[in-house]
Amino acid sequence: MNKSITCGTGRARKTPANDFQTHRVALDRTASRRSDRKANCCFTCLTCNIVTMDAAEFRRRGKEMVDFVADYLENIEHRRVYPDVEPGYLRSMIPSEAPLEPESYEDVLKDVDRVIMPGITHWQSPHFHAYFPSASSYPALLADMLCGGLGCIGFTWAASPACTELETVMLDWLGKMLQLPEDFLAGTKGQGGGVIQGTASEATLMALLAARCKAVKCVHESDPQRSEADIISKLIAYTSEEAHSSVERAGLIGGVGIRMVATDEHFSVRAETLEKMVAEDKAAGFIPFFFCATLGTTPSCAFDKITELGPLCNAENIWMHIDAAYAGSSFICPEFRPLLDGVEFADSFNFNPHKWLLVNFDCSAMWVKKRTDLIGAFKLDPVYLKYDNQESGLVTDYRHWGIPLGRRFRSLKLWFVFRMYGQSGLQAYIRKHVELAKVFETMVKKDKRFEICAEVVLGLVCFRLKGSDELNEALLKEMTHLGRIHLVPCKLRGRFVLRFAVCGRTTELRHVQEAWTHITELSSELLLKHHS
Ligand code: PLP
């Protein structure tokens, strides 16, 4: 309920200066009145018309919201996983302009049910098997709430020391969980270190820009007559033809040429192929400077051979960045850690705890071997960001490590999750998903109408009905139309393939079995129609 109370002035608006003063007095008086009574609703200051939800109301609504979210997540599997709405559905359901006068919280919540929920794709449903997982857990949600409550912006150490220091230590913890080489850790006097970026796309872009800066400097040193523009026009980056589109995009944003490297029969980039391209480009006067390897490609979860690519990049003075957005979480399990062998040759490495490590979006962990490469590339020091101790060498200013100045206190999510699951809990979680994917793979293999299209290494199974692309497209279309499970396709060697990713925190064997039953039933109907 909204309640209107006067600020105690009852005066009409005057000059802006008066306005501000009136407002100040009014708020002070309002605050003292509030403390006199047990208010549990919103107040409107009549002078300035600001509606506020006070602490008592926030406590009540906050508890309700926790219940709402817990109910949602507990019952999510009974919802249709993919929404049944058409593009543009929402505009006609809400006014065309923001309300002039305040509305009640109840009205807002009613519209969450009426307007928002029908248009939600339920990523946390155990029936969601599209893309890669978007991690979620209760400890991470609570940490996110605390982050919002603290509302601090940790762009420099001084802007919020705990925000900076916890991030550095959490990235060291996580680096140790992955058994990253010592070089990547900040420790107390290391040259490397970790940072939380928003997304893997940002991490790739940062790595590419840092590599570009380093390459320009290096060429300029040996050939001072050459202009920066001329050098940049000759720079060439490389990545797999199977790499995520964000890598090509980083090249476009960074204004450098980027070439796609062909993959072998396992969809992996091999050193021999890259070596030939580098030699060709050098002979044509170009400057190879950056290679983005992928561990766990988006279409089929393939792994570039970094044990052979790493030495090549090192020898050619090419910055090697590793994008392990999805697969990276699995490296905390000793049995999957060999997939990361070769990381010792990399200059930077990144993966997304927000995909598979139970940390809610956004949280993308990036490490560099030499943090000066990253920091030095984009360092600016305006007076308003200066503080004591800045030059002591003891502080980290994360504003130099990424694109935005402002940054949320995201390491709280890591801290809560690491402590409440423990490394053993997180490993068990990863292993369960991989086992479920193996179960799905076995079921596919048993049905002779289907084929497996790529090796199943982690929680992703690529499969298709033997037959035409049209047949598989029709199968996926029907699945999406019915909305009981949700999958997305990919192209492998030009063929239309279905991707079944184990995604949900609550996905169990029965969900995987139900999904397979649904897929086979739809396939039987489709094949019958096809042959009649
Ligand atoms: N790299 C790979 C291998 C991915 O699979 C994805 C997304 O699935 C990305 C990058 C992009 O991730 P983000 O949304 O964190 O930028």
Give the topology.
Elements: E1 2-5, H1 16-36, E2 42-45, E3 50-52, H2 55-74, H3 105-116, H4 138-150, H5 161-177, E4 193-197, H6 200-222, H7 228-234, E5 235-240, H8 245-254, E6 257-261, H9 271-283, E7 287-294, H10 306-315, E8 319-323, E9 348-351, H11 353-356, E10 364-368, H12 371-375, H13 411-446, E11 450-452, E12 460-465, H14 469-482, E13 488-492, E14 495-501, H15 509-531
Parallel strand pairs: 1-2, 5-6, 5-7, 7-8, 8-9
Antiparallel strand pairs: 2-3, 4-10, 9-10, 11-12, 12-14, 13-14
Helix pairs in contact: 4-13, 5-13, 6-8, 9-10, 13-15, 14-15
This protein binds pyridoxal-5'-phosphate.
Keywords:
single chain; 532 residues; alpha/beta; seven-stranded mixed β-sheet; globular; disordered N terminus; binds pyridoxal-5'-phosphate
